[in-house]
Amino acid sequence: MTSGPRPVVVGAPADRRVAFFQDALRRAGLPGARVVPWSDVLRGRARFAAGETVRLDSPGGEPETDRLLRGTDDPARVEGTGRWYGRFTAAVADLARSVTEAGGVLVDDPAELPVLFDKRLCHGRLRAAGVPVPESPTSGASAPAVRGWADLRTLTAGAGMRRVFVKLAHGSSASGVLAVETNGAGRVQATTSVERGPDGRLFNSLRVRRYTSEREVAAIVDALAPDGLHVERWLPKATQNGRAADLRVVVVDGRATHAVLRTSRSPLTNLHLGGARGDLGAARAAIGAAGGRWADVLGVCERAAAAFPGTRCVGVDLLPSSGWRRFAVGEVNAFGDLLPGLTGLPGGGAEGLDTYAAQVAALFPRTPPASRTTGTARTTGTSTP
Questions:
Q1: Contacts of 284 (CB under 8 A, 6+ apart)
Q2: Is the pLDDT of residue 310 over 70?
Q3: What's the DSSP call for residue 177?
Q4: Which one, of 318, 312, 316, 317, lies nearest residue 356 by Cα?
Q5: Where would I find the beta strands (DSSP E) of 199-272?
């Protein structure tokens, strides 16, 4: 019988996430993980063995997996996230049973993933746990469904919301997100990366654009609604050098270990949409100047992670209000650890470790920690990437 750790990662074999995790294992002196493709899981071909420690990674980055989950051969298409959610959560439940029956151990609680991947349920759980979140008329399992633009107008008007974010309930990476504004005269505009084709189909674009007619915005919302929508108040964000700013904070085993400041000239701070890493040290100084404490800011993220005690690593999107005085949690991401080259926060227990090395050290605590980072960049949690 083989002794020692027997790591397995379920993911996209060619994806850099898997490569980073493998590199972290190797640097820790551990055997490389056996890689199980998500496509095998979805086709019922995955098999597991006694003694294996199975870690789930993102099913993104593999065209066949995307086709199996969303039913489309075009990865740029926005639609299909409702189908993706149903198939993904069912596959995770089947996988969990297979691992347990084989005598293996699944790293994370499979029952939490359906909540993490539904923004409405996630928001409701955070709110119930006392975590500060933006106001939302779609929060929780009992909230009304948004069936289209007419429902959205009714809900937001009733809540007095003129500026809202409209998100696909099961979306990721800002897919299908609209920042919608309505002025006092009732005129509507939306900022989004969604591109609407002549035939009405929706596509993700790397260019953020603005739609300025209610007819255009309504058409996009109506097309998104069948997949499920979450709506929340658009909070005025703090700025750095004239750019909107927010934070991605990684929490491993309940402790905030890594943080990056994201800034953008648009309401969408995602790095692939033109956002950039900001100066975290300057943000910490701004928080202090406003009378706040950095430890309390990280504490909000740790409280958000504590709402999902069975998930050992999450990425928390933290929204600082204008003036850096208040903070709210926008989202909690099950696969929010892709921050290449970023090492741990001072005092966070992962100094010198990237996000993957920190997880390896937590999963296999007898292993001496490594200090190299993934990729070529070496940055600390307080430096400007």
A1: 294, 382
A2: yes
A3: -
A4: 312
A5: 202-211, 229-233, 239-240, 243-252, 255-264
Query: What is the C-alpha to C-alpha distance for residues 309 and 109, in angstroms, rounded to an integer?
Result: 8
Q: 116 CB contacts (<8 Å, ≥6 apart)?
A: 122, 308, 311, 314, 332, 333, 334
Structure tokens at 302: 């740790």
Q: Measure the CA dihedral 323/329/334/340, to 10°.
A: 0
Write down the mean pLDDT value for the chain: 92
What would the two tokens of residue 28 be?
Answer: 């820790």
For residue 100, the one-letter residue type is T
Report residue 350: phi and psi, to 5°. -130, 30
Q: Which of 174-178, 204-208, 299-303 has the highest mean pLDDT?
A: 299-303
The DSSP code for 2 is -
Sign of the CA dihedral running 255, 257, 261, 267: negative
Give yes or no for residue 366 having a pLDDT over 80.
no
Compute the radius of gyration of the chain from its Cα atoms.
21
Give the closest residue to 110 by CA, choosing from 37, 67, 54: 54
Tokens representing residue 317 in the block: 């999107």
Kindly report, residue by residue over 255-307, the tens digit of the pLDDT: 999 999 999 999 998 878 888 999 999 999 999 999 999 999 999 999 999 99
Give the residue ranges of DSSP H helices in the chain.
16-27, 38-42, 63-70, 81-102, 113-116, 119-128, 149-158, 214-224, 280-289, 294-306, 355-363
Token reading at 12? 């996209």
Residue 241 CB neighbour total at 10 angstroms: 9
Question: Could you tell me the two tokens for 82?
Answer: 């409702």
pLDDT over 60 (residue 375): no
Q: Compute how many other C-beta atoms are within 10 angstroms of the C-beta atom of residue 109.
A: 13
CB count in 10 Å sphere of residue 254 = 13
- Which pLDDT belongs to residue 377? 33
